[in-house]
């Protein structure tokens, strides 16, 4: 178990992080830019609502599928190279979308963009792990996500005006070309590791053999802290994703809101996450022991709120929906705890891979829940109360697995403390803890 990093980040490290965080901002902008272009896309490609939904499912699917490979690539080649390629793919995807006039080419464009998007976040987190001490990791990670939400905001009202003015092709073509040009800045400014004092051994890079790469993934997956991080990410962030990316507006319209009012309601997710992220990050950075109690508290609250919303007689009023959505939005900041766990319980040479494993969780849950809601809506003739039960089902599964791996990860900590090793969090045995150490490779 690695010792927590100590010391202070240099000014150069902050500049490197800011350059990389701007890459993530661009990625979030491109990821969410299709949200306000739905009507234009339907007219341009000549498709209906079901076909438009495929754009979102495809992009999220590509993103989720690429997370573990991205972690391996980051550990093998370094975040600087991976982020540079991410920018090239993001730019290419947006340029393809700008010139696409057929549905298949539009799908290809979003798949390429999803591929580039998948390369960004894990790379930025790997840079943070290398350049910042452990106590700052969660704080800087939360600032990164807050910067990403600025990209989300840019993809709403400003993008709407651009689409109404210059139009589809100039808008997306310009966004793609700006992204490609920024790759030059990334190559120039980003460095994988800080300048180390004389005599400090450099971070070793694994050879590219398939067995070595597969072994890294297996080792990361076998680590209880990584597995716990996976389930934390799975359970906490998917609900807000499903509502903000796909089913939030239809649900609110079904509750009697206008489409404009429903879109405005979704900004609750953006602003709550933007301002709540740094607060949560600062708290868990200063007091790592509260990380899992915060996760458990959020999951319990989410189950309770869903029960209230789905059991509400008649349409749910806006004064109830707004605070409910604000609470769900805190799942984004809470999901960052999963990355902190991956960072704490893996050596630096494997942090990228472990982070990729964790990042799969939330997007797998998003895909499962989003598809399940759609299927149930079709089967029930548009009954949202029944369809949204699929979100509750995924939430309950994720919560149960989170509790299982929290117990197993605590057993690993007890064993490490007994050996006299330095651990990220000192824990006291509780009545519900495992009576003896669980094997690190225990089956899920």
What do these coordinates show?
The model is unreliable at 1-5, 198-208 and 438-444 (pLDDT under 50). The chain is 77% helix and 0% strand. It contains 19 helices and no strands. With 444 residues, the chain is mainly alpha-helical.
Q: For the residues shown, what is the average pLDDT? A: 84
- The poorly predicted ranges are 1-5, 198-208, 438-444
- The whole-angstrom Rg is 22 Å
Judged by helices, strands and strand pairing, the structural class is mainly alpha
Distance between the termini: 21 Å
How do the strands and helices of this protein lay out in sequence?
Elements lengths: L10 H22 L5 H8 L3 H17 L1 H11 L1 H21 L3 H16 L2 H11 L2 H21 L2 H8 L3 H22 L20 H13 L1 H31 L4 H28 L4 H21 L6 H12 L1 H14 L3 H33 L3 H4 L1 H30 L26
Keywords:
about 450 residues; mainly alpha; 19 helices
Can you summarize this structure?
The protein has 19 helices and no strands.
